[in-house]
Write a structure and sequence with these properties.
The chain has 307 residues and is an alpha/beta fold. It contains 7 helices and 19 strands. The two termini are 19 Å apart.
Length: 307
């Protein structure tokens, strides 16, 4: 019987592990098939407090991992595949083995939707990203490209005008799906050039292996052309990693887990942290904060069981 199991090893899961371990709960962290979450695919992180010169995403994750281990957290390179709360204790299936725990912290994150084009994996972090807030400042006075047409894409494009010389907004339709106020702001901004009825069909790296251009295809005429861009920001949404919990825990219409207050779920002993419940911010620092809250709430819950 475990005291605390943490599902996920990104910023939220590792922060929860640090706090739970320091509370002498000896948490077991199920790292998943892609340990470290989205930070493990980034390069320089400049907006995490305490690092004025920035820090590489994988190094930040490694530091947090070592810190959690130092205080007694245990790690298992396995993935949560199922969840059961029908009995007295919470059970999580890790690959083929059922594990029982008194408290569960779900920090399984969300995965960005990508286009599925060739060389996509190689270019992530090298001119291909899903977060303008994270990476926009690296592309000052150069042309960049945003893919999408909803509020997220509009927000990314507007944010990038602070840095880029030109922001191309590529959308497969002839008008934005974003709210009217966001669409009006985008269309009024002289730095943003919408490219309507168009999709990206190929990424074209430069000689250094960084993003150099994209190939575009007009979905009406079929005409193709190349567009120079130093970074592509894919803003077509995220998919919360909630497969083991679907139909068993409360989710919103988009599939994100629903937390009461900050980290509690409606199910006793189950706590939620990070991007698996965050539709709006999706930042390392907000994920870390919610991981802290989830661990502290779990500690209080376990203390109540002992009384």
């Amino acid at each position: 019987m475990e005291k605390v199991i943490i599902v996920g090893s990104g910023c939220a899961g590792l922060t929860a592990a640090i706090y739970a371990a320091r509370a002498n709960l000896s948490p077991l962290v199920l790292e998943g098939r892609h340990p470290g979450g989205q930070l493990s695919t980034t390069t320089l992180v400049e907006n995490f407090p305490g690092f004025p010169e920035g820090i590489d995403g994988p190094q930040l994750i490694l530091n947090m991992h070592q810190q959690a281990e130092k205080f007694g957290a245990r790690f298992c390179y396995t993935e949560a595949t199922d969840f059961d709360s029908s009995n007295k204790h919470i059970r999580v299936k890790a690959d083929d083995e059922w594990l029982e725990t008194e408290a569960l912290i779900i920090a399984s994150g969300a995965s960005a939707r990508w286009l599925g084009l060739a060389d996509e994996g190689k270019l992530i972090g090298h001119g291909l990203t899903s977060c303008a807030t994270c990476d926009g400042a690296f592309y000052k006075n150069v042309p960049v490209c945003v893919i999408g047409g909803g509020d997220s894409a509009a927000e990314e494009a507007l944010f990038l005008t602070r840095f880029a010389s030109k922001v191309y907004l590529v959308h497969r339709r002839d008008q934005l799906r974003a709210s009217k106020i966001m669409a009006d702001r985008v269309l009024a901004n002289k730095k943003i050039e919408p490219i309507w009825n168009t999709v990206v069909t190929k990424y074209i790296p430069d000689k250094m292996g960084e993003m150099g251009a994209v190939r575009l295809r007009n979905v009406q005429s079929g005409e193709e052309r190349e567009l120079e861009t130093k970074c592509v920001f894919v803003a077509i949404g995220h998919v919360p990693n909630t497969k083991p919990f679907k139909g068993k825990l409360e989710t919103d219409p988009e599939g994100y887990l629903v937390a009461r207050h900050l980290a509690e779920s409606k199910h006793p002993g189950v706590f939620i942290a990070g991007d698996v419940a965050d539709r709006e911010y999706k930042q390392a620092v907000t994920a870390a904060g919610s991981g802290c809250a989830a661990a502290m709430d779990a500690e209080k819950y376990l203390s109540g069981l002992e009384t």
